[in-house]
UniProtKB/TrEMBL annotation:
Mg(2+) binds at D24, E211. This is Isoprenyl transferase. Catalyzes the condensation of isopentenyl diphosphate (IPP) with allylic pyrophosphates generating different type of terpenoids. One of its GO terms (biological process) is polyprenol biosynthetic process. It comes from Roseospirillum parvum. It comes from the Bacteria. HAMAP family: ISPT. NCBIfam families: PRK14830.1 (NF011405), PRK14834.1 (NF011408), uppS (TIGR00055).
Amino acid sequence: MVSEALIRHGDGSMPPRHVAIIMDGNGRWAEARGLSRTAGHRRGVEAVREAVEGAAELGIAHLTLFGFSSENWRRPSGEVSDLMGLLRLYLKKEIKALDKNGVRLSVIGERDRLAPDIQQLIADSEALTRANTRLGLTIALSYGGRQEIARAARELAHEVAAGRLDPAVIDEALLESRLWTAELPDPDLLIRTSGEQRISNFLLWQSAYAELVFVEALWPDFTRQHLAQAVAAFAQRERRFGGVAG
């Protein structure tokens, strides 16, 4: 369980509504132990469980995890195959527990690049958990922020070309409505593990005003206590959204 002292904010503030996490460090965790990179990814699945359970305990409404990027397709074919195998296993083994715990699962990204059976597992998992309200868990698979924005722009361009849309009415809200995350609030807090300090093409549009917290722990070592500490750090930030302090 997450410590109550970490959950309770001194100023009485609410936890961030939406937390996004770049799960980094599986390979380095495995290499440091003389294990295969797949072993690191497998251990990383346990950290996903920790993060999901911790988010629910903290009262976070939405948790988005960067599971597999558009660029990750460039990795060695064996590693990609192992990652897809772990994804299949996760969707088959964890979905009942997610449903039981009130977690709603959704997936964003270029689904058509995933194997047909994985696409079906995702669709089935989303359907099973659609009515759940305790926590919205979004997993970004075959996802890239630039690709997402370009796709949204293409959709608007097609509508303009077809005469269904006046380009003069295109604004931030309209473009945002074409993003994969259209039904999600922007992340309040973006966490990256492993000590790296970059966002790596993740939620580029959505993270315009997100607070960033960089955690030294490698992803397989990430626990709900790390999450709670990041949320506590968030509570100390003053968010002005381009304005001035009150």
